[in-house]
Design goal:
The longest helix has 13 residues, at 3-15. This protein has a 3-stranded antiparallel β-sheet. It contains 5 helices and 3 strands; from the N terminus they run ααβααββα. The protein has helices spanning 3-15, 21-31, 47-54, 58-66, 87-94, and strands spanning 44-45, 72-73, 84-86.
């Protein structure tokens, strides 16, 4: 990583009041190659991918999500629209297991 990129990331971390000092230290350690990245990035299925997988329309996929059968992934905490569905909920629906929304 070039130094300019590293400085930019550090400046963003410093500017975000929601990031604790320990979280910042963890990110810095990862950037410096001193900490292994242990959590894999979860797979997100788009509405089109999900509908194709199940052989239904995207409208039906949205109905399933509204009924709690699929867990939506949103780009941020204040976002109203989702960007897709979690791999775990898509797999669970494919395997015929119950609801995915907690009660």
């Amino acid at each position: 990583m070039i130094d300019l990129t590293r400085k930019g990331v550090l400046a963003l971390l410093d500017a975000d009041p929601t990031i604790s000092k320990s979280q910042r230290a963890g990110v810095v350690a990862i950037l410096d190659g001193k900490a292994p990245v242990t959590e894999p990035v979860p797979r997100v299925y788009s509405p089109a991918e999900t509908s194709k997988l199940f052989g239904v329309t995207t409208k039906q996929v949205r109905v399933w999500a509204a009924n709690g059968k699929l867990e939506r992934v949103k780009p941020g905490p204040k976002a109203k629209r989702g960007i897709g569905y979690t791999e775990a909920s898509v797999r669970a629906l494919a395997e015929g297991r119950g609801r995915y929304k907690s009660a």
